[in-house]
Amino acid sequence: LELVRFRPDLVHVNTPYYWAFLRDGTALWTGSLAGARTVLHPRGGEFPDWVRGAPGWLRRFIVATLRRADRCIALTRPNEALLEEIVGREHVRFVPNFIELATVVPVPDRSSRSGPVNVLFVGWMLETKGVRELVAAARALPQARFTLIGERDPDFLAELADDLEALSGHVRLVPPSPREEVMALYAEADV
To answer: Which of 29, 38, 89, 155 is the most buried (most CB within 10 A)?
Structure first.
């Protein structure tokens, strides 16, 4: 309805995969049919595996939706390769996730600092984001402090509950927080 009312020139659809792709793909089709140019921005490191493993009807929808987009944005090289395979290189742009911390928080001089190394993770606490590996690193590096901040996958964290409890002296989980608090954590982080 908003697409018809506002008649945008460009519709940018940032989508995860799984069932949300049906919703977001429909938004892309609607925007395209309303006359807007469209950009599809699939995110998530397992996107190629998900596309290749999708049931036939869903895979046909995914491929048709990708081809309907005027441009696709790839965040990873494997996503770029898959998108180029489906829609052609001329319709894909590689734009990796990044943050230039020096432009966000000052980088302090760590040369004279003492105390434990501070490791910071900011993102969804999911297995695919490497959280299991961070917990293993925390187990191997008891002198370091680990802060994990962001949304949580409760089922995945339940798998790590015993480890997290045993490591509670130097691993802390922080819920999503205001930007200022996250930037303060970046400023304190060594890694």
So the answer is: 38
Tokens 């927080």, residue located:
177
Rounded CA-CA distance 36/40 in Å is 12
Please tell me the distance from the alpha carbon of residue 172 to that of residue 50, in angstroms, as a whole number.
32
Q: What is the pLDDT of residues 13-48, one digit of tens each?
A: 999 878 889 999 999 999 999 899 999 999 877 889
The two most distant CA atoms of the chain are separated, in Å, by 60
Token pair of 36 as six digits: 């807007």
154 membership: H or E segment, kind and range: helix 154-159
**Burial track 114-127 (b if 16+ CB lie within 10 A, e otherwise):** eeeebbbbbeebbe
User: What pLDDT is attached to residue 22?
Assistant: 93
E strand or H helix that includes residue 48: helix 47-53
**86: number of CA atoms within 13 Å, CB side?**
26
Checking if the pLDDT of 105 tops 70, the result is no
Angle between helices 56-68 and 77-87 (to 10 degrees): 90
Tokens of 11: 């519709």
pLDDT, one tens digit per residue, over 131-144 is 999 999 999 999 99
Tell me the residue ranges of DSSP E strands in 114-167: 118-122, 145-149
Read off the pTM.
0.62
